Amino acid sequence: MVPRRSFTIDTEKTTRTTYVLGTELTVNLNRCAPPQSKFFSIKCSPNVHYKITPQAKDGNAVPYPLTPNSVLIVTMDAVSKTANDSKLSVRYYGEKTEALGDALLHLTAVEISLDVDADRDSVVEKNNPNKGSWKWGPNGHGAILLVNCDSESTYKKTLDSEVDEISKVSDLQDMSKMILRTNGPAELPEGYKLTMHISQTTSENVRVFRPRTNVQKDNVLCSHKLLKLFLKDYIMVVGTDMLTQEVPYLGGKTELEFFVEGLHFPDKDFDGLITINLSLLEPCGKDFPETPVFTDKVVFHVSPWIMTPNTLKPVEVYVCSTNDNYSFLKSIKNLVEKCGSKLKICHEYMNRGDRWMQDELEFGYIDSPHHQFPVVLDSPRDGDLQDFPYESILGPDFGYVTRHALNEEVSSLDSFGNLEVSPPVTVNGKSYPLGRIIIGVAFPTATRGRNMTQVVQDFLWAQKVQEPIALYSDWLVVGHVDEFMTFVPAPDRKKFRLLLASPDAGYKVFKSLQNNGHGKAEMFPGLPEAISVNEILSDKKLQAENRYVQNCIDWNRDVLKKELGLDDEDIIDLPILFKVLEEKTHPRAVAYYPDMVNMIVLGDQLGIPKPFGPKVKGRCALEIEVCSLLEPLGLKCTFIDDLAPYHKLLGEVHCGSNVLREPSPFKWWNLEL
Amino acid sequence: MVPRRSFTIDTEKTTRTTYVLGTELTVNLNRCAPPQSKFFSIKCSPNVHYKITPQAKDGNAVPYPLTPNSVLIVTMDAVSKTANDSKLSVRYYGEKTEALGDALLHLTAVEISLDVDADRDSVVEKNNPNKGSWKWGPNGHGAILLVNCDSESTYKKTLDSEVDEISKVSDLQDMSKMILRTNGPAELPEGYKLTMHISQTTSENVRVFRPRTNVQKDNVLCSHKLLKLFLKDYIMVVGTDMLTQEVPYLGGKTELEFFVEGLHFPDKDFDGLITINLSLLEPCGKDFPETPVFTDKVVFHVSPWIMTPNTLKPVEVYVCSTNDNYSFLKSIKNLVEKCGSKLKICHEYMNRGDRWMQDELEFGYIDSPHHQFPVVLDSPRDGDLQDFPYESILGPDFGYVTRHALNEEVSSLDSFGNLEVSPPVTVNGKSYPLGRIIIGVAFPTATRGRNMTQVVQDFLWAQKVQEPIALYSDWLVVGHVDEFMTFVPAPDRKKFRLLLASPDAGYKVFKSLQNNGHGKAEMFPGLPEAISVNEILSDKKLQAENRYVQNCIDWNRDVLKKELGLDDEDIIDLPILFKVLEEKTHPRAVAYYPDMVNMIVLGDQLGIPKPFGPKVKGRCALEIEVCSLLEPLGLKCTFIDDLAPYHKLLGEVHCGSNVLREPSPFKWWNLEL
């Protein structure tokens, strides 16, 4: 709809106004008509056009009859060269067509467009008709903003979003461009101003900068030129505590470039949408405030934080070096070399003995048509690794975000071994091309239980593009979903398999061994805790515990089948037994032997906790079983000894590592939400 | 999709489980098969049915071949008479069809359905397939909940939603019914439980009650019977600090009635949706917690708070009695009698001289298929009338809601003369059958200005069904939208007209008077402030001020035309002049003579501030003009003298009154959102 503006003319003095191309001025002709006026006629400059409503019955009758609702609609088709260079006049006539008065209007036409990349091709096109709204999907529209959550410095760091100035010119690359295109006379008529403005709520979530000096005309002030400007040459236009500010009108045909940064991720109370307005203000005479006569607006959506499933290509593998994990580290190094990724070791001065790299942080990324970078989500867990994400990961083009628990107890379920993401799935026709986030919580029916903190849950749900699934993980002592499930790539079906820990599958292996005459073969062979297959199978208490564990996992299996649209053929049961520890309030489970599902997945290379199962002809029966399940999918199994430095501390390979992966090729804004 | 549950059977001992009608038990046959099993066969009771996947190639071959993915899908078609009265057994065979073992399963079938009025006909139907989700619109579904914001008592009042027990049995009428329908044996098998549960977030917004004793079977325990129960016979099942609780299984075919109350209105951080779950818990053996084996859920949407436009029938008119408004009160009383409404007078001991009844409160209502009642929104304004809404209006079936400003200054824009609602409109094809809320704020371009507090704005936007429009009212000293606009009913077009104050229309009247030789006629005739038409027209300062005021009103006119889809023909300009008061920071306007647009609208009766305009042949020219504009619409104009007790204190008839109206016949849940 064409923006319309009510305007009043006057027979007693000449009125002046500034007209913005593409709008309509509507003049109620009756309002200012001299008493006894019955007819009127119009004269105007050639670049001024008008319509009259209601249309006079005798369309060509001049003068026109004046009715109580006679409205003159004025448009112009070209910008003015000088102020007030176009004219329109209305002459009023009485009953006998005697002239009663003339209302003169002097017009200045300008073109004003606040522009963004609304079609998401990383070019700021001119006046996209959809720039003022957001629509998801491949046929959608709306510009995109990144939270400026990286730090241009690698030491003396601050999040760029926490400083209200531009710290380095490279910071501009993290921002979205916005261009004010104007065309018109060298100067606006006296008293007119351009002003950019945002709402109070928006001001908490965005900042807009512009170069302080910008006098080049008739061409774009391109980024590479801007980068040569000094930092002091950038000023904040709107943002925190600055809701509105005048912006210069440069005259002629000019483009003024702005840089826009997001300050916060979508969350419970922020839907991610940001509106920025630009208004032309008209003077109302001395002593009165100006009134806006034209407003253009643009809408941005802040990029959500996006997680990367195991099926995406690994880039860097993170592990801790501790005083007892030398051979483990070596195994990981070999594995990482095989798949061509980089290994990043967090040394002891930083980890202070906290080896649970999986639990302190989760890697994700943010994405826009012009730029993308990884962002680490720092867990509220805060073990001795707590400084690692901020101190060692945050940096130029590596963002950081965290959530702090408020009036909530942080539990083991807040570690990010309890935060995973599925590969892309389609569920009952609904597609999740970025997969679905998976977390573990207490059974909703439990009168008490541990949960992931509400602030982190709120954050995850608010990202919207990987709709989370809550599983039940509180049945485990440690309570992480990665203790009973993972995903591996596969060449067929849905391009992945869900691996689940399965006591039933475990017992099946042990029974087969017994049945085939290997009842005396020992679990943990050669180790102090060695125990025979027969002994394991005759332990009724262990059986009852594993029945309970299988119930818990089956409940999760049913949820995963439903929420990820999986068939039984998409799931592989890995033979893993658990045992239940007596806790004061609640019996909870840990893996009986190294929990093979807690593996690291690097392309087709799997680093699996070495289970130390009973040997038949010198080979571990559990390894053989797992290889027979996974190798047909083209996966390569490397069994890594994590017994002493991880398993005995209630974690495994996955808990002790983390993987930065390539972003998904799917663009989040193309989701149909 | 049929709920599926993974289940494991055992060849070493009989397993038992409880099956819920309408679900499927899926048994992985390979998991518990004895080693070397190659085939299996199934036997079962006549009410047990099964399917096998993958289907054996030779469909009728018995025994069936066992594959790694062989799954047995079990269903039942009738409830059990006694626990474990149905059986299924699986026999496993080796290569040469020798029997290797039998897995026995004993089944108890029950029917469980948590029911609500999901089709919105005020009857709680059985197991509506859509009960677990919410959809807006006439073809939508989902149950509805009222915020229990009235008070069953008229003295010693508390909001019912603030006490976690039922204060009077009449309180049950404000709640939505929910019924747990069960059918099965007299008792559940040992160790099984039913439990109702809600999330932490939901627990802040809902409470569920049930009668403590309820042993009637095979028929509904109807409300009228419940009402005879004593209050102590109701207990809270879930709600604040109570996320889950066991509910009784009554045995046989039974219905257990629950009563559900909402605690909060939709707001910035609450979308109004509430989910309540009911699970069947299965015992997992001594020492282990139960696991849910079946969960049913229902969804409610809390009724938004809905405002009533001037076009709805008035029920009660509220005004204050003060020591100086006797004749004003008498005029209002006459007017109210004409339109058949009731008059409610707030006496001086309560109003303490604060006469601005419009500003302290706004009437609205909440609505559900089973019940509706009015709800007063108490302004954060808090003048001397501040106790009136709670003390005098809140009561049985008259609800109360308020918002308190947090770290925000409360300004004159928080008075509810600055909160209005349009009649139903359709804008570019989008229909607003409940109209749109209208508030006044500062210009978005103003560097400083007064605004309505964010908490109230957030509340209004969150109701969703009357999407608000923000106008510019900060140009007025008092700053209320009712100083320059109102709506009146009309027989034609959109069934209403928007009335706008118009200095241009005012000057037109005065110029006509001058032109017709009445230049010496006096405004405020006979009063000390009397001033002639000629003097008014020659006041250049007044003209400039009114030019500014007209600009401000025109900006609002353009917004209203756009946001309400109005044509110029839907708008009537009332002849009103303003004057601008010198304020330190900002020039702001007040009406020059009684502001006729600030009228009370009671059906076709309009109570209009008497303007004291210049008289021609003994009749006020301004009254004549206004009557000539409004009477053709079938409206009856009564001019009420509010000069001393209201106008001189910067308010008029509308500011000094409030109208409780009938709710809209349109049901909010039928909106297409």
TrEMBL record, chains A, B:
Instruction: Give a yes or no for keyword Transcription in this entry.
Output: no
Which residue intervals define the domain Protein-arginine deiminase (PAD) central in the entry? 110-282
Which EC class does it fall in?
A: hydrolase
Which terms in the Gene Ontology molecular function aspect does this entry carry?
A: calcium ion binding; protein-arginine deiminase activity
List the keywords (alphabetical).
Answer: Calcium, Cytoplasm, Hydrolase
Q: State its role.
A: Catalyzes the deimination of arginine residues of proteins.
The record's principal subcellular location, in a coarse class, is cytoplasm
Q: Which family does it belong to?
A: Belongs to the protein arginine deiminase family.
Q: Which InterPro entries match?
A: Cupredoxin, PAD, PAD_C, PAD_central_sf, PAD_N, PAD_N_sf, Prot_Arg_deaminase_cen_dom
Q: Which protein, by its recorded name, is this?
A: Protein-arginine deiminase
Segments forming domain Protein-arginine deiminase (PAD) N-terminal: 1-108
Supply the EC number(s).
Answer: 3.5.3.15
* Subcellular location per the Swiss-Prot or TrEMBL entry: Cytoplasm
Q: Which PANTHER family match?
A: PEPTIDYLARGININE DEIMINASE, PROTEIN-ARGININE DEIMINASE
> What GO cellular component is one of the record's annotations?
cytoplasm
Q: Which reaction does it catalyse?
A: L-arginyl-[protein] + H2O = L-citrullyl-[protein] + NH4(+)
Q: Which Gene3D superfamilies match?
A: L-arginine/glycine Amidinotransferase, Chain A, Protein-arginine deiminase, central domain, Protein-arginine deiminase, N-terminal domain
Q: Where is the active site?
A: 359, 480, 482, 655
Q: Where is the Protein-arginine deiminase C-terminal domain?
A: 293-670
Q: Which cofactor does it need?
A: Ca(2+)
